[in-house]
Amino acid sequence: MPQDLELSYLRAASQVFDRPLLICETNALMIGQYLAGRMMREEPAAPRANRFIGEEQFDREGDQLRWKGYARTGSVARISMIGELVNRGAWMGASSGLTSYEGFAEQLDRAAADDEVHSIVLDVNTPGGEAGGMIETARKVREIAQRKPVHAVVNSLAASAGYGLVSGASEIIATESASLGSIGVVFVHFDRSKYLEERGVRATVLHAGKRKVDGHPFAPLEGDALANLQGRIDYLMDQFVGLVSDHRGLSGEAVRAMEANVFPAPVAVEMGLADRIGTMAGLVADLNSAGQGRIITGKRIADMANSDQKPDAREGMISEAEHAAALTNARAEGATAERSRIAAILDSEEAGPRAGLSRHLALHTDMAPDQAKAVLAASPEETAAAQQEGTQQKGGQQGAGQQGAGQQGESFSERKERAASESAPNLSAPAPADQPSEQRKGLSAAVGRFC
């Protein structure tokens, strides 16, 4: 074995053995076995990112081109999270079979800073990796998702540290065959004492500090050393559970009850680990057709698992800005329509000799003008004294309305309610002495018939 390659494998082994990992057990054992046996005769096939969606983006610096760290389709940036995850490694990516947290964080920052990017899509296929650096990077995903939508598409695995990272996304989408979960910690220890003993080799480990060499490979892992390392693993597990609980809105008990299992996509949606079933192509097309890369948030679509709605049935969704504009327009149109309804009732010929009742119908009911006119026509005319009182009340109402209109922040509906309370006739009070009882009966019958 060439010396430089031997050193590379020793360095890789130091990143795997005797340290906590957030990775699927099968992958941890596979990597450990591979490195321990120095199985270097065959080069494994490197996982690849999606090559068909998006064009890689570059900045020109003089005669040189600098990769921005993401591909783009329209206003959507795609960032890959492929293979095992390591803390350091700059631009390690899909071609190496590894993704580094520091490189991934830099890619996120660059996409978030690009004004032409309105949403970020993560292309995810990872079994997890190093514990160190995962929590901080996951928090960065959440922080950026609060400024710009971040959608994670799992195709076909988001396990352990990989799931921890995507838990902070605005939305987690899984392909039908995807798997998600493995929220747990694994620590691989190789006891080489028997191996060395068979070859007549005895290792002596000198140290200062009782816990300095806990977990060394030249003796079985037991006693205080085992308890100490288990305590470190439990601490990391507490952090991991808290992260997922915070990002996904799940209780810590619910996360622990999953027992670090890996779940198929439909079950993951039902358990709250993912939001829906979908594809990268469908999501990117959807976001670009919306124009601004909508935010589709968290728990958000999780209830789809309990309905008959088909995945991707999101036609007609609008952006937040469009929703706010539509709401403002609707309020303005509603206020205009209400003013027109009130005016049509109060200005009608039928309202002339029935001022009290017309105000009641205009301001205290939602009755349409035609219905109100019918009620007024069927009701007896009010006396001259009541008419005069009504005119005075109407004048007071208008003055109060004008005064209220000048009050800062008072909406039309608030002015309407205030004016209505000031001018409302007391229909339960005894009728004036000069009003015949037959008229009172006719008024009650008319209101009872149409209201």
Structural write-up:
By secondary structure, the protein is an alpha/beta fold. The protein has 2 domains: 317 residues, 2-enoyl-CoA Hydratase, Chain A, domain 1 (Alpha-Beta Complex); 129 residues, no CATH class. 46% of the residues lie in helices and 15% in strands. The strands form 3 sheets. Strands 2, 3, 4, 7, 9, 10, 11, 13 and 14 form a 9-stranded mixed β-sheet that branches. Strand 3 and strand 4 form a beta hairpin. Helix 11 packs antiparallel against helix 12, helix 11 runs parallel beside helix 13 and helix 13 packs antiparallel against helix 16. The longest helix is centred in the last third of the chain and has 27 residues. It is elongated, with a radius of gyration of 36 Å. The N and C termini lie far apart (95 Å).
- Approximate shape: elongated
Task: Note the total helix count.
Answer: 16
What's the number of extended β-strand segments? Answer: 14
Q: Give the full name of the CATH homologous superfamily of the largest domain.
A: 2-enoyl-CoA Hydratase, Chain A, domain 1
Question: What level of helicity do the residues show?
Answer: 40-55%
Mean pLDDT: 75
Q: Roughly how many Å apart are the termini?
A: 95 Å
Label this structure with key terms.
451 residues; nine-stranded mixed β-sheet; single chain; 46% helix; alpha/beta; 15% strand; 2-enoyl-CoA Hydratase, Chain A, domain 1; 2 domains; three-stranded antiparallel β-sheet
